[in-house]
Amino acid sequence: KQEVTQIPAALSVPEGENLVLNCSFTDSAIYNLQWFRQDPGKGLTSLLLIQSSQREQTSGRLNASLDKSSGRSTLYIAASQPGDSATYLCAVIGGNTPLVFGKGTRLSVIA
Amino acid sequence: DAGVIQSPRHEVTEMGQEVTLRCKPISGHNSLFWYRQTMMRGLELLIYFNNNVPIDDSGMPEDRFSAKMPNASFSTLKIQPSEPRDSAVYFCASSPQDSLGYTFGSGTRLTVV
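Output (structure tokens, whole complex):
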């Protein structure tokens, strides 16, 4: 059974810092990996989708990498801003298994 | 496209009452998913459909939960009778058949008192 773990569970950084959020998964036979953002009381917004044949994806200040063999992904946020404060969720799809989520990293960027 | 549309946004009901949550997926998406989010357990898959057919309902917690997808543009999740422990946010999501990314609705926040 696929399990997704995100570390740290919570993170607080001063504005302007670069930061890395970590995600690991137990079954490396995945089709793709998706990073989401969730604001308090809101739904999930897709940030980046990495297909299994890819190693990274970039969107603006965000860069996500994927290492299938080690079962790891990282989300890099450059020059963090208070507006980046949210919970970031990592999720994987594999085999016949729909999206399996980690519990998320709650990020606070302090002005 | 308006995205995945869920209704209602909020639902407060008394224990024992029937609750029906609704979802309209993105047009052209062949797969639909129902998830439940709680603080303790995070996001859990309840059931999913491919081409309107239920594929895996092993995540449905009890027989009190049922889901239907009568056509490609509509799905319901029903809880009967509801219990306080069913209080959570219920999300619907859809994806193209080739699973190139999921799009989530805004969720229904259910409170059972």
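The interface with chain B takes residues 31-32, 34, 36, 41-46, 49, 51, 89, 91, 93, 96, 98-104 of chain A (CB under 8 Å).
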